[in-house]
């Protein structure tokens, strides 16, 4: 992984970083609240698991006609995305509980999604959270084939239409992860990341192979054995489930970082970003629809990405409470606080940004829109 360093260009940046941490920590201390999860998270875990497993059990126990079976897979896809955002995400970040085994258990729900908790941690926690929106380091804005998410990436003619076709490729997000975990683990082992995290590469391979075998046996084997569905119907249902899940996750993730106002800075020749890391996160991240209780609940607080990036070890159930503190502190120190007031406003901003990135001489994102 490219070595990137952050250096504040002025003292006020460090002052903001110190102030926002102090103010948020004071909130938890003064109210006697743990920054980890509480009964709200426990309820979320139960609801999301039920949303995924109930339709799967119905599919196995009740002879469903083809279209009804597809509907069950659609609901499973909605639950799958919910588990990823509201259960696995907190677990992998260690924000769900003070007990490490609880975080490992919830983080391990990634295997229910058909993915690997370890490769997700490497890609998400280490790369995306540490070096947000930095070209060739943050894989979440990596430009591949028909998609260009970074203004510094090469421009192709097909990118002109990406504001239309990008949403189809979002649907492939979890589907492809099921299979590309093998390549991701190979890269982590070869680069030494696995050992640097105190893990045995051979054990990681064994865990991955066993987890994949169990997952495929469950998701393909059980329907083939217990339902009247043909093999192609089971595979189609698998694809539909992952397409729904990937589409939801892809849109939610992109509304946080590929919108107007979210910057994409480059390090200098020495690998230095001349901004304090906390301010860098403020400049590269956006919130959306902060007043929507439903979105907040379903997305696991990921519509409050600013708070999540500044305090990834704080459980998402607290983001709505600390958001006014972060915003007030940012205003006091002249630091941008990028918020799109509604979901559709954020979606329109994302489409606009995709259009910009699909044209020559893409302007640098700078305006903070409401």
Overview of the structural elements:
The chain has 370 residues and is mainly α. The protein has one domain (5-357). It has 15 helices and four strands. The chain has helices at residues 11-30, 39-61, 66-93, 100-107, 117-128, 162-170, 173-191, 193-196, 201-226, 231-257, 277-284, 293-298, 305-310, 319-332, 343-357; strands at 5-6, 272-273, 287-288, 339-340. The strands form two sheets. The protein has a two-stranded parallel ribbon with strand order 1-2. The longest helix is centred in the N-terminal third of the chain and has 28 residues, at 66-93. It is globular and about 65 Å long. It starts with a strand and ends in a 13-residue tail after the last helix. The model is unreliable at 362-370 (pLDDT under 50).
